[in-house]
Amino acid sequence: MEDQEKGFTYTVSKEQLDNYRKWPIERRLKWLYFANKMRKSLPRKTIEIQELFRSGKI
């Protein structure tokens, strides 16, 4: 069971990337700012679990 893949993956299409590139820099920065702000408001345990997924430990 230890060789089983862990963590998660996702796919972003070329169209999604192209659309994002069309956004003005200010909009992109606002989007990142609010995403980070939203994450900071999550309970500490939720953030710890997210980090474990990102690192592939679960």
Overall description:
The chain has one domain (14-54). The protein has helices spanning 14-22, 25-40, 44-54. The two termini are 12 Å apart. The protein is flat. It has 58 residues and is mostly helical. The longest helix has 16 residues, at 25-40.
Map the helices and strands:
Elements: H1 14-22, H2 25-40, H3 44-54
Which structural category fits the helices and strands? mainly alpha
Task: Please write the string of helix (H) and strand (E) elements.
Answer: HHH
Q: What share of residues is helical?
A: 55-70%
Query: Roughly what is the average pLDDT, rounded to an integer?
Result: 88
Low-confidence stretches: none
What's the Cα radius of gyration? 15 Å
Please indicate the percent range of residues in DSSP E strands (runs of 2 or more).
Answer: under 5%
What's the number of domains?
Answer: 1
DSSP summary, beta strand count = 0
Main pleated-sheet profile: none
Outline type: flat
Number of helices: 3
Distance between the termini: 12 Å
